[in-house]
Design a protein that fits this description.
about 0% strand; about 80% helix; mainly alpha
């Protein structure tokens, strides 16, 4: 309906905004960015529109364009917490820690001054991601706690679960992810629960959580700092590792008769095939992510962050072959 209206000649800014939203939820981020740009040409004073523009620049790896646009908007229209938070996100992607922390902190201060508890929770959570990326785990833990104190959102519990899992505190991670699961409509808490159960040695229980995830649509990705390819790579990695752990467990089973021997061999072959299939998908999706960063680095941005992401995802897609993958670590 919206594209039909546009093809009939309607050039209303609200139409452009709706088209940007809809294509964003379809994970067509490049197209969404184009519509958002047309919207801002007619509504240049909409700060929320500029915030959305910065987010789409982040999603499409146009870091320099997004940073310059949001800085220009703050120069023209003055301080704004959502623009500061957007700058923090873009600088985080560019691995510019000082500027990312500066703008996240400005956003936090503005939200606190205006008693905007929900936004305060979001901004503390975003800053905790920055701290975790730079291995400042104490600061990340503190920001996550402050985020939940401001508003008990699922993302805060997700970050707590992730930090607990890094420490191999499985019981605490399960509790945190369980709280996120009760609040979250996305599959992220489910993946966290599955990963925790897998690492703690319960592949069957982990796999049970993943059954529903495979059938879930992916419009939720529009609001998260990931892509469909990254999410599918993470999903297939867990499925692959479940197959590996099940295969190792199958090797240890004692054979009592010819029938159990035959069943064991059939089961091992099946698990090997499943492992090969999931491993292949994991590498394909990681290579797609790497190729996207490579394209973005070449066309959109000179920021160092894109090259680091490109090399890390190429390494993940090729780490089975050390002779090839090693050069991406150099």
């Amino acid at each position: 309906q919206l594209t039909a209206a546009w093809s009939l000649g309607l050039r209303d800014p609200e139409l452009y905004s709706l088209l940007a939203d809809c294509t964003g939820y379809l994970n067509e981020d490049e197209e969404a960015l184009s519509w958002q740009h047309l919207y801002l040409e007619q509504r240049p004073d909409d700060l929320s529109g500029w915030s959305n523009f910065g987010w789409l620049c982040y999603k499409t790896n146009r870091l320099d364009e997004g940073i310059n646009a949001l800085l220009s908007a703050t120069d023209r229209y003055g301080p704004d917490g959502t623009l500061y938070a957007g700058l923090g996100t873009l600088y985080t992607a560019a691995f510019d820690y000082p500027n990312a922390k500066l703008y996240y902190t400005r956003a936090i201060d503005m939200a606190r001054e205006k008693n905007q508890s929900y936004l305060l929770s979001i901004y503390y959570y975003n800053r905790s991601i920055l701290e975790e990326i730079f291995y400042n785990f104490k600061a990340a833990t503190d920001d996550t706690r402050l985020s939940l104190e401001a508003s008990p959102r699922s993302s805060g519990y997700l970050m707590q679960g992730e930090l607990d899992l890094r420490r191999l505190d499985f019981a605490s991670a399960l509790t945190r992810y369980g709280k996120a699961f009760s609040l979250d409509s996305t599959p992220l808490a489910t993946l966290g629960l599955a990963e925790t159960l897998l690492q703690s040695g319960f592949p069957d229980e982990a796999d049970a959580y993943l059954t529903a995830v495979e059938k879930k649509e992916l419009s939720w990705i529009a609001n998260y700092g990931t892509t469909t390819d990254q999410f599918l790579a993470d999903f297939n990695k867990i499925k692959r590792d479940i197959c590996k752990l099940r295969g190792n467990r199958e090797k240890l089973k004692i054979v009592h008769s010819l029938s159990t021997f035959v069943f064991k061999q059939v089961r091992r072959i099946s698990l090997k095939f499943d492992y090969w299939y999931r491993d292949g998908l994991y590498r394909i999706y990681n290579k797609r992510v790497a190729a996207k960063y490579e394209q973005s680095e070449r066309h959109y941005s000179a920021s160092n962050g894109l090259g680091l992401y490109k090399n890390s995802f190429y390494f993940l897609s090729l780490d089975r072959w050390p002779g090839i993958s090693r050069r991406y670590l150099e």
